[in-house]
Recover the amino acids of this structure.
């Protein structure tokens, strides 16, 4: 079973007002997170120990007594001291706007002021949980290619030859996608003209719906398997959860356009001996 | 009962009032509206039946639905008592003396959290909290500074202190001694309501059983030595702030009240000796008519409980006397000036509900401690209601409104249902230990939050009618070096006092805590020897253990 993101909700100092902490804790739980609540009157040291022991990714601090400027930074400092500063700290309570820059400079990632909808705290955790996961893998190296859907490669090519002066590097048929592909080199990257070979081809459906034009952007990546697993764990919608074979012996997978504001991204991992994206 | 009987009863009541007025007249000889219509002291229905007399009755008379005094605010306005306290004892003393010079007769002391939880300012647990939400008191010396040049036989002082209430009361008595004022002359209130600390406010120290003992020790000691002192202020305020509904506020407060009464009776005290010293503390939130009805229902329920169930004979034992504070949690950090309007409505509800004293919140309390400007507007709000609105010119002006009377009855019914449930669990102490009230309140507060976030409940300026880029108001700042200064003072005191005497008195307190003697005199001795609050509570912590929330 998948491990839920874990959050420690904590009340540092002596303040006994825990209505807010309890409501946020419950909202985080309802939002699908696993929440541990420390109870009242915790010293920063107790909170940090609990966070490490409970193996949480986040600490949410609540303070209404005005002691936040002393107590919140101390939690961050102790996390660093214990080598647990990958734990993200956020906070809330009766905290004046003018204190927020100081608290942020001390390493508190976000301060929620009175009246903030609890959903914002839930969203914050998810967004930053994703951010954390991505730090384990390197960003994509470069754009491997830009895919352009065309009804006919023969009809499209003259523009690229004659008007842009690009060079055809080769063509290939990709059976799995029912497409014929023409590669045109441009600097470090390429255009790929994609022509459907049958009405069942995804490219045929694309053209039918939206007409010819830019179809996808492919990213040159390492460790495609791990990356897909991470994306999946972070709730990013995928078209291919496991890589399949693409052109040039690459292993490829598509992310769902919903995950990227309507842009279809493809991950491509080229065979190591091919020296990256494989300029033929 | 026929109309004639009522005429007789009403006449008797009027004669009684007339007798009182001879001694202490009302604020004016004649009350009128702007059109010179004469305003009567009391309006009653044309046809009075038994049900009216039983449930509503006359003001100053059982069951007190219409108020605890016969003339209410025509005689005297409620006490305007603003809760204050910040930083050091010196600063707070200066503020108190200023307020007294301005004609205020009651003080209300806010303590910082370390004091409220029995830690000295140099305790590691006190880090960051010294002087933040009130004044820091470590020893009798700080209390002497706090009360310097204030005549304790002339002012009444309300102290918001619970778990270590005995210690602070002892310090107050000890300062009075030094002024040559005997404890019989002292008047004031300690909050001393530990049950609501477990339920909602969080400044508990010891487990319920020894805490209840400390409380009944205070009841017994004060009945004999400090007779004018309100020994407890049984508080629904914080229960409401934690998210409870109006019904829950009344039900849990009165259930707590019963627990204190039972504990005192078990300790062998006479009901009519301690019950007149019990007082209550309510919230005033936004739902205007329900808030008004809440006070009326609570008075009726408490009077009946005390007379019928506990056979109290002294009418003072039947009276539900209440201090009210407007609802802090209803204030928004957004567009804080709007809070002035909220506070006005809430304060008006408390007045129409018949409160004995009132604290109005400041507009900036969702952001920080109030600035002087904000605190002044809050006080002015009460004064405008009191002196300009005319709502104070007749007693219980909303009585007889179909809506108000119906709400009063319905609240009573629902409160009694809740109280019965708590009774079945073995009373408030057991219910608290089982976490029952805490869970009920949390359910209610989460439900409210959901409604606000879905827009079903509208909070003006927060989830509707917002403005972008609000200007930030000026806020009060507490001197951050205070913690250090307080530490230095403590160190110096520990070097200077008679430490042998301190140890002796602390040891005697330890022995007392093991047995059943009244602890008040022992705590007084510790205090007189300049033992610190942390040392005194430290001994009791060792003997009683500490409460851990469920």
């Amino acid at each position: 079973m998948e491990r839920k993101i874990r959050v420690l909700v904590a009340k540092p100092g002596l303040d006994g007002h825990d209505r807010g902490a309890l409501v946020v804790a419950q909202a985080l739980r309802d939002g699908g997170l696993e929440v541990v609540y420390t109870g009242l009157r915790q010293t920063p040291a107790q909170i940090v120990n609990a966070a490490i022991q409970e193996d949480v990714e986040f600490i949410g601090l609540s303070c209404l007594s005005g002691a936040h400027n002393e107590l919140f930074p101390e939690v961050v400092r102790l996390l660093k001291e214990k080598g647990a500063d990958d734990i993200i700290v956020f906070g809330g309570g009766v905290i004046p706007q003018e204190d927020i820059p100081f608290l942020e400079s001390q390493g508190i990632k976000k301060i929620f002021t009175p009246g903030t909808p609890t959903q914002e705290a839930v969203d914050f955790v998810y967004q930053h949980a994703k951010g954390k996961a991505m730090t384990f893998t390197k960003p994509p190296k470069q754009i491997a290619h830009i895919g352009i859907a065309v009804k006919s490669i023969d009809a499209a090519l003259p523009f690229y030859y004659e008007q842009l002066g690009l060079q055809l590097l080769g063509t290939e048929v990709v059976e799995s996608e029912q497409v014929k592909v023409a590669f045109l080199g441009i600097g470090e990257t390429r255009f790929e003209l994609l022509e459907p070979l049958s009405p069942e081809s995804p490219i045929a459906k694309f053209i039918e719906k939206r007409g010819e034009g830019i179809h996808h952007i492919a990213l040159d990546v390492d460790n495609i398997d791990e990356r897909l697993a991470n994306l999946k764990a972070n709730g990013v919608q995928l078209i291919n959860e496991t890589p399949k074979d693409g052109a040039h012996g690459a292993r490829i997978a598509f992310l769902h356009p919903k995950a990227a504001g309507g842009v279809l991204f493809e991950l491509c991992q080229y065979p190591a001996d091919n020296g990256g994206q494989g300029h033929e | 009962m026929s109309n004639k009987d009522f005429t007789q009863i009403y006449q008797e009541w009027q004669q009684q009032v007339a007798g009182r007025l001879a001694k202490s007249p009302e604020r004016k000889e004649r009350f009128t509206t702007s059109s010179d219509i004469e305003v009567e002291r009391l309006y009653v229905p044309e046809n009075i039946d038994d049900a009216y007399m039983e449930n509503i009755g006359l003001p100053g008379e059982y069951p007190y639905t219409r108020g605890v005094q016969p003339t209410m605010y025509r005689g005297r306005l409620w006490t305007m008592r603003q809760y204050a306290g910040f930083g050091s004892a010196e600063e707070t003393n200066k503020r108190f003396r200023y307020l007294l010079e301005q004609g205020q007769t009651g003080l209300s002391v806010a303590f910082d959290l370390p004091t409220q939880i029995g830690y000295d300012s140099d305790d590691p647990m006190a880090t960051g909290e010294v002087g933040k939400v009130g004044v820091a008191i470590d020893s009798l010396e700080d209390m002497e500074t706090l009360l310097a040049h204030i005549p304790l036989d002339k002012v009444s002082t309300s102290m918001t202190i619970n778990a270590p209430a005995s210690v602070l009361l002892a310090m107050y008595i000890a300062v009075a001694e030094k002024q040559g004022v005997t404890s019989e002359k002292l008047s004031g209130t300690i909050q001393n309501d530990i049950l609501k600390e477990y339920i909602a406010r969080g400044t508990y120290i010891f487990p319920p059983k020894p805490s209840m003992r400390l409380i009944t020790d205070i009841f017994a000691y004060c009945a004999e030595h400090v007779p004018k002192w309100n020994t407890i202020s049984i508080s629904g305020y914080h229960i409401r702030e934690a998210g409870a509904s109006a019904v829950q506020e009344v039900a849990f407060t009165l259930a707590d009240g019963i627990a204190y009464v039972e504990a005192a009776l078990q300790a062998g005290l006479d009901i009519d000796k301690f019950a007149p010293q019990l007082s209550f503390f309510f919230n005033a939130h936004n739902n205007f008519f329900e808030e008004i009805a809440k006070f009326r229902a609570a008075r009726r329920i408490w009077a009946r409980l005390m007379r019928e169930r506990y056979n109290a004979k002294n009418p003072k034992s039947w009276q539900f006397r209440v201090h009210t504070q407007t609802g802090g949690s209803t204030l928004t950090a957004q567009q804080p000036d709007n809070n002035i309007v909220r506070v006005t409505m809430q304060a008006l509800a408390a007045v129409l509900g018949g409160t004995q004293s009132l604290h109005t919140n400041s507009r900036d309390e969702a952001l920080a401690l109030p600035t002087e400007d904000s605190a002044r507007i809050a006080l002015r709000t009460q004064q405008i209601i009191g002196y300009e609105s005319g709502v104070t010119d007749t007693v219980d002006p909303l009585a007889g409104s179909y809506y108000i009377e119906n709400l009063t009855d319905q609240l009573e019914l629902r409160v009694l249902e809740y109280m019965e449930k708590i009774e079945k669990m073995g009373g408030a102490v057991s219910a608290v230990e089982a976490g029952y009230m805490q869970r009920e309140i949390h359910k209610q507060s989460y439900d409210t939050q959901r409604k606000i976030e879905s827009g079903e409940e509208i909070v003006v300026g927060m989830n509707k009618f917002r403005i972008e880029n609000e200007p930030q108001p000026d806020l009060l700042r507490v001197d951050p070096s205070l913690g250090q200064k307080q530490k230095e003072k403590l160190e110096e005191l520990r070097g200077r006092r008679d430490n042998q005497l301190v140890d002796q008195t602390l040891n005697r307190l330890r022995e007392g805590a093991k047995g059943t003697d009244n602890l008040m005199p022992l705590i007084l001795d510790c205090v007189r020897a300049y033992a610190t609050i942390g040392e005194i509570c430290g001994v009791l912590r060792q003997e009683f253990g500490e409460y851990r929330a469920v």
